[in-house]
Structure formats: C-alpha cells, structure tokens
Specification:
The complex is a heterodimer of chains A (422) and B (231). By secondary structure, chain A is an alpha+beta fold. Chain A is built from 13 helices and 16 strands. In chain B, helix 8 packs parallel to helix 9. The chains are: A alpha+beta (422), B alpha/beta (231). At the A-B interface, helix 1, helix 11 and helix 12 of A face helix 1, helix 2 and helix 4 of B. The complex binds adenosine-5'-diphosphate and magnesium ion (MG). The site of magnesium ion has 4 residues of chain B, from helix 1.
Chain lengths: 422, 231
Amino acid sequence: MGLSILGLAWRSLMNRRGSALLTILAVALSVSLFLGVDKVRNGARAGFENTISGTDLIVGAPTGQINLLLYSVFRLGSATAEISWDTYQSIADRDDVAWTVPISLGDSHRGFRVVGTNDSYFEHYRHGDGTKLRLAEGKLFTDIYEAVLGADVARELGYEVGSEVVLTHGLGAGGLTDHENRPFVVSGILAPTGTPVDRSIHVSLEGITAIHVGWESGTRSPFADTISEEMIRGFDLTPKSVTAVFVGLERRGTLLRTQRALNTQSGEPLLAIIPGMALGELWQVTGIVERALIAVSVFVIAVGLVSVLTSILTSLNERRREMAILRATGARPGHIFFLMVAEAALLGLLGAVAGVLLVQIGLLVAGPLLSSAYGIGIGGLGLSAIDGWTVLAVFAAATLIGTIPAVMALRRSLADGLTVKL
Amino acid sequence: MPVIDIRDLRFAWDDGPALLDIAEYSVLPGERVFLRGPSGSGKSTLLGLIAGVLEPQAGKVEVLGHDMTQLSGPKRDALRADRLGVIFQMFNLVPYLSLVQNVTLPCRFSSARRKAAGGGDGMTREAERLLSRLGLSDPKMLERPVTELSVGQQQRVAVARALIGGPDIVIADEPTSALDAEARDRFIELLNEEAARSGSALLFVSHDGSLAGHFDRSVDLKEINRAKGGV
Ligand SMILES: Nc1ncnc2c1ncn2[C@@H]1O[C@H](COP(=O)(O)OP(=O)(O)O)[C@@H](O)[C@H]1O
Ligand SMILES: [Mg+2]
C-alpha cells in the first residue's frame, strides 16, 4: 500500500507541477547555497593548508603575518618592502638554519606571477604531505634567461620547452611595461601541484636583476635599450634584495627561539612567521564570516522548507473533494496522512537532490575559475558526506513539516465524511 | 439476510439537533432501492453512516453482517474498501489520475478488491471492460485527462469505479443531478444493468422523486426518519 500511495503523491505533485517545480527550485537553491558556502570554505582551507609544508619559518620585511604569508606563499597581494641581500645572507648563515629559499617577487607575465629564486626552491619547497616539486618536461633553469613554468602557465598559455617569454614589470595582467628586449626561454615545465606554484613562472634571482638593469628608477631609462645582452652578462647580477625567505631549521625544537631571534634582531627589522600559525590566524578572521554565512544559509534552507509547507497548505482547500473521494474508495485516515506527508517529503527530497546537483554543476563550471583566481583547490569540492547528510536532513525536515498539512487534511476528511460542500 | 440493516439509528452533527432518527431500514442482497428526500434532509449523511465514514450517536448500522458501530475505524475502512462502491453527485474523479487509474482506485486500498478485479494487468483489463460497457471505449478518450471529460462521462467513470471488483453494495448519492433528462435516464439504466450484472445491491438517493420508477423499490426518507432536525 505504501508504494501505491507514493504513486498517488507523485501523480498529485505532477498534476501541480508548475507550483511543485517552483517549490523544488526554492529548496534546491537554498540547499545549494548552504553546500556551496561549505564547499568553497573547505576547498579554500584545504587548498591553503596543502600549499606549503616543511617550511619552518617565512621571513620578510615587517608587515602583518597574514599579509606576509599571502604574498610569499599564495602570491596574493604584494610586498610593500623587501629585505636586503646582506640580511638574507645573515639568516642563511645562522647555525640553527638548515636551508633557506630566497624569493623575489614583483614581475609578471600575462597575469602570471614571476618568482625569482634559486635551485634551493626546487630542493626544499614542499606541498601537500611533503611532496617535492617535480619537472614534467625539460630541466631547471641554468642560465640567467631561462624560466621554469608552473603547469597552469604552460597549459593556459600554450607554452612548451623552448618558448620565449617576455616578462612584465609590475603585476598588471595587461602588462604595465614590458621587458621585451630581454625575452626568457622556457627550460622546463613543472608537474601540476594544485598550488599557486602551478601559476608561477620561476626564474633565477640573477635573471630578475638582469631584466631590471636600466630600470633602477622604477621606469625604463632611455639607456635600457642600449645595453646589450653581453654587457648585462658582464655585470655583477647578485640581487640587492629579496622579497621573502623560506627557512628550514636544523632542529624544529628551536623554532620559537629562532623566530624570536629574527623578529628582535638588531639591524634591519624583520618579520619571521610560522606558516601554520599564520594560517590559524587567517582562519580566525575568516571563521567569523564563515559562521555568519553558514547561519544565513541555514536560515535560507528554513525558508525553502516553509515554501514546501505553503505549497501544500494552499492546495488543501481545493483538495478537500479529492480526500473525500479517496476516503469513499477505501482510503484509511492513515492513507490520507501518508499521502500528504509523502508529498512534502518528495518535494524536500527532490529539492535537496537538485540542490546537490546544482552545486556539482556549478563547481564543474566555476571550479577552474575559483582555483585560478583564488587558489581554491577543486580537489576537495566533489560529493562528500555533507551532501548526503544535508539531503537526509532536508528530507527529514520536510517529512516532519508535512505532518502539519497531513493532520489538517486528516481532521477535515474525518469531519467531512462523504459530504463535502464546495 | 439484508446487506444493509439499520435499527434505532440516531445521528446529529456536532451538538445540533438530531438529523436522523430511523427505527428500521434495510436493503436486501442484489436489490435496487431508491431513497427520496429533499435537499438537506440528511440523505448524504445517511450514506456516510452506511459507508462507515460517520459514526451514529445511538443505534445499529449493520452492513453485510457487520455492526459498523462495533467495528474499529480501520475495520470499517477495510469493509468499505473491500465491499462497497460509492458514486457522488459530481466531481467523482481524482484529477491527477488517468481514467483507468480512477476506475482501479479502490484496488489501491483493498487487496480483496484487487484480487476480485483480476489483479495487476487483469485489473486494468477489467477497468477497460467496464468502461467500454458504459460507452467509454474510445482509446483516445482513455488517454485524455479526466478533467476534460463531460459531466455525463465523468459519472459513468464513477460507475465503473464503484463496480470494479464486484462490490456487494453500491451507494449512489444523487449521481444524476448534474445530467440532463435524456442522459439521466440512460445513466440510470446503465447503472441498474451493471449493478445487476455484478450482483451488487444498489442504494440510490435523490431529491427527484420522478426517478423512482427505475427501481425495484422506493422509499421516502420522510417516512422512515422521525427526526425533525433536517430541512
Ligand atoms: N460535515 C458536516 N458538518 C456539519 N453539518 C453538516 C455536514 N454535512 C451536512 N451537514 C448538515 O446536515 C444536514 C443534512 O445534510 P445532507 O446529509 O448533506 O443532506 P442531503 O444530502 O439530503 O442534501 C444539513 O443541514 C447540513 O447542513
Ligand atoms: Mg446530499
């Protein structure tokens, strides 16, 4: 009997499919808002947390710790100041420091950031569970004018080993002013990592210095074009400064002591941060917003459920006759009750499932955009337990809500008997 | 033994005056009975009591040997589903079901009825057979939404539904009041014929006394009802 009543519920909904579809849509949109917020939040967290591992400290010029983390690791925002090469040397020379990776930021190529660094980057930078960077093609840069591309850069711009790349001074996508007289040659392409490395162009620190010869004032000097490549190669290309330094320690036990020593050292003021702690602070800031968003989206789901209730309540009056017919042909009060509850439950279930599908479709479409624009990994955005639980919860809530019209229909049909006035 | 046997029945809606007060009224198996009464006299209420949808304040309503006042609600519902057919004045059909689905509706609530109608596919064939006997055989018509049928056609579908699975009793509550004179007589003839065919007793109520001639026996509600609560 349960099945045949479900069949009735289904046909009844189909008969009112216009309003039923609107109700399902309302539930679907509310569910997709909730799941969307949750997935983007988790994706962002997972993406950020997977981006750097194995680096004990990040050192840069004094700024906020979140800011330093964002521009050095996530290539978001930009540094306001740099640290001098001598200071970098003094950090690298410390007894408690095992390795350092200097990076120099500030140039770009068609919207992708350029990272000046050295071999130590490919040796010590780790992501995920401690995975090293791996070349998919070619080799690391050995010459001043060679570049190693992240996977997305090569894919999106269609570059191969041997392609020429003209770097841009500044970070504008269209390029403020090009260094076109000094093109770089792609020497290698990295395997995809799902981190901002995929969207970076890596060149040697000397290469960064070289393209800025003649740019010391910040704009192109009239002499820039007159300097030949041979002349540049003859210069001392040791950088004068770097933007940030990734630091690995000899022993992790000295972490806090080393951090304090760097932060309080005399000479050039520095900021040394522990990546995990900076991320923690970032989550604290975003957590407030996240909780507010989640709360709002839960309320929106409640609104969606109210639309289920409204849709069934408004149909009750015109269906009084139908209930009398069902009773006359043998329906028990339980059948009437079950019919109304089943309609609510079906609306809730279909809405929730449609909401999950909406989110998945949305992620298929917008996922690549999210990952390229904000470094949100789409890996963790697929179907997960929360989707199942949400569907279950909305289904249960709709079923529960369905008991309200069900009780009303039941009472009425018992009072009406077979005599329904129209 | 009568299929319907009413003794000392008293019924009032809510706290109102007694609407029905019937000392004795019965219908025999296979009998076709007409019950006349003006609008508001309590005919539909009486049918509700016989169908076990309403409960009397006093007295006994025996249907097919079961005292409805002693049966539990679910048992009354089951008895109605298994052995009664009901036809209303109008709007007999569930708008979201097809013609055939409307006819087989009682089989959804009663396995006895389903079995009697031939079960599964047999049930659909039986519905189509009944419909074609009632002049509704055009396959194109069977496809149409029931809301597009004329009132006369809808009432004939209701007859097929009441008769599917050969119930012992068919109660018809003014089924012809929305039909014109010609359609009305034809309808009553068909209803009588098919009820006779399936051996069902027929209790037909109407305010229109001129229909009495179609039936084995005719009773005026005034004659059996001692209450003055009704109109
Ligand atoms: N569901 C109901 N609740 C309260 N009073 C009702 C209900 N149905 C009918 N009545 C009252 O009972 C009386 C008889 O109604 P009814 O049985 O429909 O008469 P008939 O079918 O003979 O026209 C009327 O006065 C009507 O107002
Ligand atoms: Mg009536």
